[in-house]
Amino acid sequence: MPATLEGGAKLKFQCRKGIACWNACCSNIDIALTPVDIVRLKQRLDLSSSEFLSTYTVPYEMEKDGIAGVKLRPVDGGTACRFMTHAGCGVYDDRPTACRYYPVALLSMRKQDESTDRQYYALVREDHCLGHREPRTQTIDEYRAEQGLTEYDELARGWRQLILKKKSSGPAVGKPSKRSLELFFMTCYDIDRFRSFVASDSFSKIYELPSDELHDMLLDDNELMQFGFRFLRQVLFGENTIAMREHNIEERRQRIAERRRQLEQEAAERMAREEEPPDVDL
């Protein structure tokens, strides 16, 4: 277990063009993406979030039968990053959070008696990396600011809190349903599909949002992302911050219950027909 560090800890490291290990870390990747990373990269590549996910990522389980994460897909038949060039990163201004942090690992933790998470850090040392031999020294906080991580971390904070809350809840909230897992994936990673969902009539029949708020967030990926984290806290953990249309909800429950009764009746009738003895000629 690596030692945990705080932001004021000293970091002796520098990655620079011309260093002997240039591009080595990009040649064998295992890069998990945050929702912020996906938004930045899909905008950079002028793709929808669904197109970006299918072309550039692979899903993975953060825990068995639990919520999913997304990793960057390496080159076909290899392990290198698809954005790596001889000159360095081809999407440097929009590079993922994990790339910005390297060789520091972010550890978001929350104590049982605390309501918010705290950020700690760990140092990653790999044999191929020669950046630790460079003479430059600064604090981890200074390195984070230099790498543009202050904004990235703040935007992704709600997502990390959702993951921490789910992991800390453990079996108390039970095994997630397939529907809740799909909802988590769409809301966190497929932002354009989530936008269509929020703009739909079915959503507006259940949730009541001020028209100006709805309009603004449908036009802004980051605002929609933050709303998505609120939405998941409400749906998954009952933290109600979004007004709901109770009359429509009750009507929907009744329709679902009626549909369930119909399906059960049809299933029972099928079973009865299958169990009927065949006609026998006497």
Q: Which strand order does the major sheet show?
A: 2-4-3
**Helix/strand/pairing class, anyone?**
alpha+beta
Mean pLDDT: 89
Low-confidence stretches: none
Helix content: 40-55%
- Strand and helix order: EEHHEEEEHEEEHHHHHHHH
Q: How would you characterize the largest beta sheet?
A: 3 strands, antiparallel
Which quaternary structure do these chains form? single chain
Q: How large is the radius of gyration?
A: 24 Å
Distance between the termini: 80 Å
DSSP strand content: 5-15%
Helix tally equals 11
Shape estimate: elongated
Q: How many beta-strand runs?
A: 9
Protein described:
The termini are far apart. With 282 residues, this protein is α+β, with helices and mostly antiparallel strands. Strand 3 and strand 4 form a beta hairpin. The protein is elongated. The longest helix is centred in the C-terminal third of the chain and has 30 residues. Helix 7 packs across helix 10. The protein has eleven helices and nine strands. The strands form four sheets. The chain has a three-stranded antiparallel beta sheet with strand order 2-4-3. It has a two-stranded antiparallel sheet with strand order 1-9.
